[in-house]
Write a structure and sequence with these properties.
The complex is a heterodimer. Chain A is mainly alpha-helical. Chain A has a domain of 160 residues. Chain A contains 16 helices and no strands. In chain A, helix 2 packs antiparallel against helix 6. Chain B starts with 6 loop residues before the first helix and ends in a 13-residue tail after the last helix. In chain B, helix 2 packs across helix 5 and helix 4 crosses helix 5. Classes of the chains: A mainly alpha, B mainly alpha.
Chain lengths: 460, 144
Amino acid sequence: MQYQSQSVAKLYFIAAIGLFLGQILFGTVLGAQYIWGDFLFPAIPFNVARMVHTNLLIVWLLFGFMGAAYYLIPEESETELFSPVLAILMFWVFLAAGAATILAYLLVPYATLAELTMNDLLPTMGREFLEQPTITKIGIVVVALSFLFNIGMTMLKGRKTVISMIMFIGLTGLAVFFLFSFVNPSNLIEDKFWWWWVVHLWVEGVWELIMGAILAFVLIKTTGVDREIIEKWLYIIIAMSLITGLIGTGHHYYWIGTPEYWQWWGSIFSAMEPIPFFMMVLYAFNMVNQRKREHPNKVAVLWAQGCAVMAFLGAGVWGFIHTLAPVNYYTHGTQVTAAHGHMAFYGAYVMIVLAIISYAMPLLRGRAAANSNKAQVVEMWAFWLMTVSMVFITLFLTAAGVLQVWLQRYTETPMGFMEVQDKLQIFYMMREIAGIVFLIGLGVYIYSFFVDSDGEEATA
Amino acid sequence: MSEVFTKTMARNIFYGGSAFFFLLLLALTFDTQGVLPERDHRENITPEVVLGKKVWEDNDCIGCHTLLGEGAYFAPELGNVYKRFGNSKDAIIGFIKSRPKNGIPGRRSMPQFNLSDEELNAMAEFLKWTSEVNTANWPPNIQG
């Protein structure tokens, strides 16, 4: 750690990991509800558990992105953070708002929460992933603006690098497109149209810039490869992300009442969305192969390379398998979508946050470069447990999805939804087992922070 | 990458490409907004349909169901439920009303939301309206 004010990142990373644990606990609850339909009913209905699972994911990834920015922006800008006090204040505001929202989901019926928070004044609730009460959404905007101000001012007074610029563009895009969460026309079709301007333009748009910038930072630090080379790769990768991803939005506009030309635009452009992810794999492995130094933090490099590979598989390959309109006609809204969603989020966004945490946390905790060998080995176990179990979760959900499509859609004698669900039980069982292994992997990950923390640092 | 391809070129492709395709997205969006009224039969959005959408949102129905294929995959697709239930609003209302408070042992069950008659009717109207949107023949069959 070169600048004192980078230490605010530590708070953000700790909160991120804590909320990650909550997310996965509720994930295992949801998996159980797929097997035993009445599990925890009516105390925690499926929709409530799902809101907690997805909202915790979003919130902890945002904590991760902000922590990453507070760590890497001062270092890139070669100056102290503009206002560490503001960063700490916003941390507590965001944590309090996030925790209160999650608790409200669990403790109050959703309709009551909508009433209590006066949703009718500006109705924004009750849409997938945007379930937060309007007041929470306003809070998110305030936190995001303060955060952008803070890192923007830091960049202004210091060195301007490509990495910090791309990070800033990505985070600004994140804040700007979130504003569409306040657009909720009473016409469902228009509502759905603009909803994707938050969801798609986040995860298949500006978040990829954030991911690219963090990956570039970690690669520069751990490989010592010339910044010029890394930055050139970064530019071309994120160029391909936006060139394919912006019009790729069309793959959500096939069957929701939007014009049929989107089937062409969406299919052609989203078929190219794997390209930037494939380039990320080439890039991460090339940079490590051309490394100018042996960095003692081996596990951070493992996360960075793993992130590129899993993002390519989850977002790229699993996105492609159901993105062409004639295929999507049958797979739209099935377990195939769920399979893709799980591996894509884990590969692209969970792993990039864990990569920067893995790189930065030893430094934030006062190490010179890395944890002890023993602690790194434990963290590597966590990497493999979580990554392999996520591969299995994805495979089981894909199998469930293919069978679901076959029985319910792609047949002369289609069966009803619930009847088909009964036939998918075996896959839901295996998915739940894989989910529990993931939870164990996360336990090992958390444990790795407490292993041998006084031990001698690993050397290259 | 070779030295012929410089960082400046990469930067220009990023800024130029992003700007161009964002403008293209805006143009297509503008066109879509013009065409949508022919497909979403918005002239039939009555106050009941509006209330129905509010009830849909206030109870987080999307947290279990899909609606035109979007949402959660725990419970049946509802975009065409009006047609699946034999073009019957009463069947929809009857189903929602009859959910047991404590669920069904061992099975998935919809919660009992205690909706008023006005809300139930609005929900049915909303689902009827949704089933009549032009969705390019999706879903493939009545099972959703």
